[in-house]
Amino acid sequence: MKLLMLGSGTSTGVPRIGNDWGECDPEEPRNRRTRVSILIENEAGQRILVDTSTDLRAQLLANGIGKVDAVFWTHDHADHCHGIDDLRVMRYDRSNPLPGFASKGTCARLRKRFDYVFEGQHGYPTLMDLKEFDAIHLVAGFSFDFVEMPHGPVTSTGFRFEADGKTIVYATDFSTITADMVACFSGADILVVDCLRRRPHPTHAHLDMALELAQKTRARKTVLTHLDKSMDYRSLCDEVPKGVIVGYDGLELAA
């Protein structure tokens, strides 16, 4: 099973509009970060996209991705779902809508905000078939489990994907580590984890919290994501312990 990190940045990306790089070296290409999203692929070539980031079109073009077999959403914040319209071209050569999955609350909000995607409109076909995943645990050649994570006053869904005897966990946008998270994520081959900045934040994990989750779940490899403009790639690489990888746009890893 393979992981492709499409985007590794926070909600404003790096640099921020205004060419604001913060503490990130603009000469280091891995500091240029689009909004977070990942793609996982099994040995059969089946692909799951997690989140439709605001930068989705550019991410798919940059990585040569023309199709996916299913889409999962962690939650409905703009940086995680407002690129949904870029999935439209993936419907062209399909006889049926693209499968999509999210929690009950996220499904309801996505349907309200993007009704044309899930209902069709003005003669255009339905683009996606959106389902709650409460009773579903096998999609496109992957088995999966999930857990709701505190994300400030709301929640975000963390995912555990398994295929070909390997496990990839995606845990972004959380502000507290719960026992249910540890139980769901334990023993992953790759843990992709929220890591906004070094200082604590009210709605996101900071560096110490990200490393704590890696330690508690005994992840074989840990990849930091959702990094803001204070997290210079090379400086952070020198700081993190062995087994922890600083994520960047275009990173590919085999589980």
Automatic annotation (TrEMBL):
Keyword Cell cycle: no
SMART domains assigned: Lactamase_B
All copies of domain Metallo-beta-lactamase, residue ranges: 34-226
Keyword Nucleus: no
CDD domains hit by this protein: metallo-hydrolase-like_MBL-fold (cd16279)
Keywords noted in UniProt: Hydrolase
SUPFAM superfamilies: Metallo-hydrolase/oxidoreductase
InterPro entries: Metallo-B-lactamas, RibonucZ/Hydroxyglut_hydro
Record-level Gene Ontology MF annotations: hydrolase activity
PANTHER family associated with the record: HYDROLASE C777.06C-RELATED, HYDROLASE C777.06C-RELATED-RELATED
Protein name in the entry: MBL fold metallo-hydrolase
Organism the protein comes from: Erythrobacter mangrovi
